[in-house]
Design a protein that fits this description.
Layout (H helix, E strand, L loop, with lengths): L3 E7 L2 E8 L10 E7 L6 E7 L9 E10 L2 E10 L10 E9 L4 E3 L20 E9 L2 E9 L5 E8 L5 E9 L8 E9 L2 E9 L12 E10 L6 E8 L7 E7 L5 E6 L8 H4 L12 E6 L2 E6 L11 E11 L8 E11 L3 E9 L2 E8 L4 E5 L19 E5 L6 E8 L2 E6 L4 E6 L8 E19 L9
Antiparallel strand pairs: 1-2, 2-3, 3-4, 5-6, 6-7, 7-8, 9-10, 10-11, 11-12, 13-14, 14-15, 15-16, 17-18, 18-19, 19-20, 21-30, 22-27, 22-30, 23-24, 23-30, 24-25, 25-26, 27-28, 28-29
Length: 465
């Protein structure tokens, strides 16, 4: 699986579709896989929702969105055609509609509903995809990505009165070379008095403490002008500083939260699960609540996770060197840590310890830099693109705070890190041996005061301690 699609609430169940090749554990003809959940954590697979079997989507049913229309579940997706991959200009992408009852879906006879005729004059539709559709008043709005004539991505806004006849409003945001090449997977939502625009970025320039992946995702606060399409940006930042986060989508919950989920892997990279002979490749992040704190966009695991916790364990200690805590072991945990006052220059945690393996989380207190190092985390993960940098060490700026507050969710091969109450997030896949279950807190160059709370997560369906 890769990109999440159609993340939505329909008939009191959360629906998550996803890019899916049912024939193999490598990328192939894209279908829409489908799962449903009452609580965003306990998922049940349903039959494939979309199959690339039509003349306008024979090359794949690419990413899109879902919403409720007149009591039915409407899927908007990209029909992909690439009959002659070696011939420039042969690729065509259009936006399509399917309607269903939450289990089975029928493609609309008017497909495609948005094609090159709605694009700015003279521009091709070879890279034109990932529709996000929503309703405002008496009209429907859609944002989708498109490659400009200079090769850089842009986000366009369209409008419709009936979901089938669309017209271009204008460009929402244009890449002028400052942020990668092509853009993908746009989303938009409101948070308090802010509008938040989300999109994914191919090949951003690598930085020491950001955009260290081959591809990444960003969000910006601002306001969308519905008459011109223009998005007036206030601020822009990378969503996740870890190695495995792409194509996020959001859903609004009945109690007013915005919940985000993303593909937790990266393409153009080796697949340890395949190399280890497992029957899957790719996974999703934990659903995350998105919220504002001091005007800053933050993230945390959804509160529903607390229902799956075992009994709480607590400990505190002055740490010098490396210290283990009784009962703090395992590969499926929800762990809260505060690294407080002290004289240590560096401190942090070692996770998944055993048989020469470890995952390093290190805080440089004076420099205000947090480092995630998975270079010894088990089965190696490699970038496959020639000349690509390593994909083992990731950093984030914490500033020189008095303490570092961490929330760590370990789910075997998935690790998600939330720093400073969600100001920074890092998603990471790793493939340690099952016996690599040790955890240590460490301090270098002095001591650190440390407090911990942790819970086993053996209540999550499929979790293994």
């Amino acid at each position: 699986m890769n990109d999440p699609n159609g993340f939505s609430l329909f008939e009191n169940r959360y629906h998550l579709f996803y890019q899916y090749n049912p024939r193999d554990t490598v990328w192939g003809p894209m279908h829409w896989g489908h799962a449903v959940s009452p609580d965003l954590l306990d998922w049940t697979d349903l039959p494939i929702a979309l199959t690339p079997d039509s003349k306008y989507d024979a090359g794949g049913c690419f990413s899109g969105s879902a919403l409720t229309v007149d009591g039915m579940h409407a899927l908007f997706y990209t029909g992909h055609l690439d009959p002659h991959p070696s011939v420039p200009g042969s690729r065509r992408e259009t936006q399509c509609l399917a309607i269903g009852d939450g289990s089975r879906y029928t493609k609309d006879p008017s497909n495609p509903v948005i094609d090159e005729r709605q694009l700015p004059s003279g521009l091709p539709s070879g890279d034109f995809r990932d529709p996000k559709v929503w309703r405002e008043g008496e009209r429907w709005l859609c944002i989708a990505v498109h490659r400009q004539s200079d090769g850089f991505g842009q986000i366009l806004l369209f409008e419709s009165a009936d979901l089938r006849s669309w017209s271009l409003v204008g460009p929402v945001l244009r890449n002028r070379g400052e942020l990668g090449g092509m853009w993908e997977c746009p989303d938009i939502f409101r948070l308090e008095d802010k509008e938040v625009l989300v999109w994914s970025v191919m090949n951003p320039a690598r930085q020491e403490t950001g955009f260290r992946n081959l591809h990444g995702a960003v969000w910006a606060t601002g306001a969308l002008d519905r008459e011109t399409g223009m998005f007036a940006e206030e601020s822009r930042t990378e969503i996740d500083k870890g190695p495995d986060f792409y194509a996020p989508q959001t859903v609004a919950t009945p109690d007013g939260r915005v919940v985000m989920i993303a593909w937790m892997q990266m393409w153009e990279r080796s697949s340890p699960s395949r190399e280890l002979g497992l029957d899957w490749t790719g996974c999703m992040t934990l659903p995350r609540e998105v919220f504002l704190s001091g005007g800053r966009l933050c993230q945390r695991p959804i509160r529903e996770l607390e229902r799956y916790r075992g009994p709480c364990h607590s400990a505190s200690s002055r740490v010098e060197g490396a210290v283990a805590f009784p009962e703090l072991v395992g590969q499926c945990l929800d762990l809260e840590v505060v690294l407080g006052s002290g004289t240590a220059s560096r401190c942090g945690l070692l996770l998944y310890l055993g048989d020469g393996e470890r995952t390093l989380l290190e805080w440089d207190r004076a420099g205000g830099i947090f480092t995630l190092d998975r270079s010894l985390s088990g089965h190696p993960i490699r970038n496959l693109t020639a000349g690509a940098p390593e994909c083992q060490v990731y950093r984030a700026v914490t500033g020189t705070a008095d303490e570092l507050r961490l929330r760590l969710v370990l789910d075997r091969s998935a690790l998600e890190i939330f720093l400073q109450d969600g100001e920074i997030a890092m998603a990471c896949t790793l493939f340690p041996r099952e016996t690599s279950r040790g955890i240590r807190v460490f301090a270098e160059g002095g001591f650190i005061e440390c407090s911990l709370n942790w819970w086993n997560l053996d209540g999550i369906p499929g979790a293994v301690q």
